[in-house]
Design brief:
With 150 residues, this protein is an alpha/beta fold. It has one domain: Rossmann fold. The chain is built from 7 helices and 7 strands. The strands form 2 sheets. It has a 5-stranded mixed β-sheet. Strands 1-2 form a two-stranded antiparallel sheet. Helix 2 crosses helix 7. It starts with a strand and ends with a helix. Its cofactor is Mg(2+); thiamine diphosphate. This is transketolase. Keywords: Magnesium, Metal-binding, Thiamine pyrophosphate, Transferase. Pfam families: Transketolase_C_1. One of its GO terms (molecular function) is metal ion binding.
């Protein structure tokens, strides 16, 4: 079980030794389910905690969810096919990426059957908490987006 704690306002995820080693591979499985997942949530940076919380809600509803943290897509792209397939199995089409910046980049990872919770235009100016709600960076919106594609 992974524990979550908060330091200086940023939620950090505890990781096991394998996950720590896999950070250097650009993306890794942060939270997994038994068997093949029916949904993969992808996130990076501050959005990872939102994905973890959304996965917990979906799991409580009986869904099989994997959370992938992708700190460096460029490094992940350089990994061998076997590792990339291990992290993002091609047969799992239901995918949601969570990105507080422009969403366009993430479509290559979610495919035609997935969705991206991200910015559709240039940003706004306001406190971060207000902006996250305004642009849908909430656990509730991620869960709603996931349910729509499942």
């Amino acid at each position: 079980m992974l524990l979550v704690y908060e330091i200086s306002g940023l939620v950090h995820q505890d990781r096991n030794e394998q996950q720590l080693a896999d950070i250097a591979r650009g993306a890794y499985i942060l939270k997994d389910c038994e068997g093949t997942p029916e949904l993969i949530l992808l996130a990076t940076g501050s959005e990872v905690s939102l994905a973890v919380d959304a996965a917990a809600k979906l799991t409580a509803q009986g869904r099989k969810v994997r959370v992938v943290s992708m700190p460096s897509p460029e490094v992940f792209e350089k990994q061998n096919t076997q590792y990339r397939q291990h992290v993002l199995p091609a047969e799992v089409k239901a995918r949601v990426a969570v990105e507080a910046l422009i969403e366009d980049y993430w479509y290559k990872y979610v495919g035609l059957d997935g969705a991206v919770v991200g910015m559709k235009g240039f940003g706004e100016s306001a406190p971060a908490g207000e902006l996250f709600k305004l642009f849908g960076f909430t656990v509730e919106n991620i869960v709603k987006t996931a349910e729509a594609i499942l």
